[in-house]
Amino acid sequence: MKRESRSSAGGRKSWWLAAMLAAVAAVAAMGLSANSAPVVAESPSDAGPEKDQAPALAASGKPEDQAPAQEQPAATEGEEAAGEPWLVDEKSGREYRIEKLPKIEGTYKWKDEHHVLFPAGAILEVVKHDDRWFWVKHYKPTRPQPRKPTKVGPTEEELEKAAANYRTDTGEVDRLRFETFEKGLPQAGQWRSGFDLADMNGDGHLDIVFGPARKGRSLPNVFLGDGAGNWRFWREARFPPLPYDYGDAEAADFNGDGHMDVAFGIHMRGMAVLISDGESGFTPWSSGIALDQPNEPGSGGAFSSRAIAATDWNRDGRLDLIAVGEGPKSVRRGAPGPLTESRGFLVYFNRGDGSWEPWFPQEPTGGRPTFGEDFAVGDLNRDQRLDIVSSSSQMANPGILHIGTEDGMVATESFASMRPRALISAVALAELNGDEYGDLVISYLNAELGIWRTGIDIVYGGADLSWTRKPLVAEESRKGVSALATGELDGDGHPDLVALTGEGEVWVFLGDGQGFFVRETPADLTQPVRGCRGYGLRLADLDHDGRDELIASFAGEGGGIPLDPSLTVPGCPGQGNLRVWKAIPNPSP
Predict the structure, then answer these.
(1) What SS3 class is residue 501?
(2) Contacts of 287 (CB under 8 A, 6+ apart)
(3) 12-33: per-residue pLDDT in tens?
(4) By 3-state DSSP, what share of the chain in percent is helix, strand and coil, each rounded to 5?
């Protein structure tokens, strides 16, 4: 009998719980949820729920007397649900009915004196309760107001307006054919980043001066040219033991003895200057120039660069060394310690005795100085002072103009003609339109309105550092233009332009005599396959015929970079190479 009694009592309690849960669910389905904020009406319950108060009920009777609820179709818009008419909350103006729920201990919790938390997280407003029941408000659900559609992307008008800024009117010609001029140069190895051309052995022909190839032998490389397209590695050259690595090279006579010396910008390490003995030997001449030594305590703080140049910055008759920082570094100032970085420009003043004085020429601007892999030096505004235009590895950083001031400093100017979200990878200075103001050639990789574009702009300089931009080439891609050089390819006296891309393409533009260019489309210009990025680029007259040859370096990973099982970036055959081409005018038709 006790067992039957317990079963009967447990069944009744389970039935109440099921009924209560069903009622809560029904109320929630009609407009209340755990996240709904209840609205308290102005009613007798405002003074606290009272027992035995008898409000009008939408449902009544004991649970055991009720038939199982049948699922009813939802009322359509404009129809009133069956049952008692809706009451109106005098405070909020919302319509509601009173619903009756079983009161079972352990299945509810008072949130405050008017609201109870029921299973499934529903919080309901209590009007009345006794030992067995709750009477709660069920508010009539309201139809949510339609939301205004959110803008998911640029409009067609915005896209068209942006695209108009990239359209070009550059013509195309086929005036030249290109022949290789590179016998004896390496056709493998990661030849990055920069190099220089100089007559290193005094035979009257230009040679190629390079630092170590990335992942190659840890010594500088010099390839001697004979002016006829033949090259040989200068095995006789002797260099002191230093922590060389790839970066940049600059050949110049730093000590004024008539022999070509060489400076190296060394990735992550710093810089070094070596002077020639007039034959094949080189010795350090770098007192005061910071160069981090591997595994040396406290090392890691040297200013490092992959773009250096020799110029007489302070006009004392000696060539100084200028460098742009390569940015964040992974070499630490000892262990442990913060990562260091190289930003802005550094000038090492040449004291003429093998010692150098470091000097940072930037005036404070409140922002962080730029960093990059390229820069050009010249007089942009005809004030007889040197100015600098730099690349920028920081997106949307317009501070690429550095104008020389009377005190020898440079003032960084915002470049208004820069593309809105551009990375500037390469720059060049030239006088293109004959007005004697410096003109700029700027390559960019730009993201505007979600579209990536690769291109080159010609920016004409004017009085008071005014600028006029004209697009030369633009395409929708993320390859980027990684190197620029100007020179004379076709012998007509007008400046020509060559560019290398991040996919190893060679773009050639010939001066049109009016300050602009036409694009040369030679079918026989051998182009490295995709995966070899262009790095170093020079135009120089190697064979003394009055027309420049094209010298370029390329590098990449041989196996490519796997992105996912179905997509890979093609590898660079041989991991790179050194290329030279000679431009030959086509016969007149």
Answers:
(1) strand
(2) 354, 355, 356
(3) 444 444 445 555 555 544 444 3
(4) 10, 40, 55
